[in-house]
Design goal:
By secondary structure, this protein is an alpha/beta fold. The chain has 2 domains: 140 residues, 2-Layer Sandwich (Nucleotidyltransferase, domain 5); 44 residues, no CATH class. Strands 3-2-1-4-5 form a 5-stranded mixed β-sheet, sandwiched between helices. A hairpin with an 8-residue loop joins strand 1 and strand 2. The protein is globular, with a radius of gyration of 17 Å.
């Protein structure tokens, strides 16, 4: 069972991102403020849940959260700024979109750049410890997966419907055959010769 709150009296927003390790597409981030008494025994780190369970929880989170927001940074922004900075920028965008201002930010991971004057706490593995971060991980993941599945309709050669832009053998095969698309991250290692050799 995840912890419901980090503190008793502050309005907390959990923040997480999805798509940092992908070869293509944006990085998505979400920020979620849950009610203090929110509980759901199925809520967990999005990576530990089936796609069907993630979709069910997304609907619950969006219905019951005090506030939630999702934002992204494009592959071009990632190439310009690097993936870490872009992941944090996407979190900042999501926090900015919240309809309620949080008093504490709970960040999954160990790196963050201060957002305005709001204090923050970085927590390694936070999406498996705190409900608000787990909720943010689910929203970021489901919105990103949805986006990549839409792109797949025009770029079926990379099988993004299945791999969502992550580095898989089939994704590298697609690059080898069709070259890179305008959604690929050019600063990432996209060389199929190197990557297929070791996969």
């Amino acid at each position: 069972m995840l912890h419901s709150n980090f503190t008793e009296d502050l309005i907390e927003a959990g923040c997480d991102e999805a798509g940092r390790g992908c070869l293509a597409g944006p990085v998505f981030a979400a920020a979620v403020i849950l009610p203090k008494d929110f509980t759901d025994e199925n809520l967990n780190d999005s990576k530990k849940l089936s796609p069907k369970k993630r979709e069910e929880l997304r609907r619950i989170i969006q219905k019951k959260a005090i506030a939630w927001a999702v934002a992204s940074c494009t592959n071009k922004e990632i190439d310009k700024d690097n993936i870490l900075k872009s992941s944090i920028n996407a979190m900042h965008k999501a926090i900015r979109k919240l309809k309620v201002t949080p008093q504490l930010l709970l960040i999954d991971g160990n790196r963050f750049r201060k957002y305005e004057s709001i204090p923050h706490k970085t927590i390694i593995g936070g999406d498996g410890l705190y409900m608000s971060i787990a909720a943010a991980s689910i929203l970021a993941k489901t919105y990103r997966d949805e986006y990549m599945m839409k792109l797949d309709k025009n770029y079926p050669e990379y099988n993004w419907r299945s791999n969502k832009g992550y580095p898989t053998k089939e994704h590298y095969k697609g690059i080898e055959i069709a070259g890179i698309s305008k959604y690929h991250r050019k600063t990432f290692n996209l060389n199929p010769q190197i990557n297929l050799e070791f996969s």
